[in-house]
Amino acid sequence: MTSDPFFDELRRRLPGVRIVVLPGGPDGTSAPEPPQPVPDVDLATAATRASRARADALALLRDVWPTASAGAAPPQTVQYAWQPDPGAGEIVASVTARLVGLVHDVRATLLPVAETLDAAGWQVVARPVGHAGARLHADRGDQRLDVVAWGPDGPWDVTAGATAAVGQHAAAVSATGTVDAGWHDDAPEVAP
User: Where does the source fall among the domains of life (predicted)?
Assistant: First the structure.
């Protein structure tokens, strides 16, 4: 038996298949340490950190836009959202810009984006979406970037994210919901 319920169930269902679970990550390094809980903070501090994460996500989106959008002009509006991780006391502020009809050859357009991000120190993973789309996910420190092309002439979403340690207030921050704002506007503040 392993400590992983997935492999335990797989072994139960396929008793004739030998399953070997190696320690460590996929590249042979040791497995990452589980995240340590964020110390509790007051609501005002959590709101300040969340607002800063929104501003950081917007700055990241504007910084990577020329690369991630394949050189297209930015849209008029962007959408801010939250991706909470209440167990760790952190929340990810994300901002998404959407374009329509940007590319005709999705994979050929995403390849230079992936190469540029990789050369800039991002950890990049690309995978197909459906039969004609593709998704590129990149991480660098506490920053993340997703570029999703839903298919030829379909929507092209570029989402930038930044993490904020908000302690026990992750659910309260995420309850502020999504906000649409102008591309050139400052990131909306989070009220305590």
Answer: Bacteria
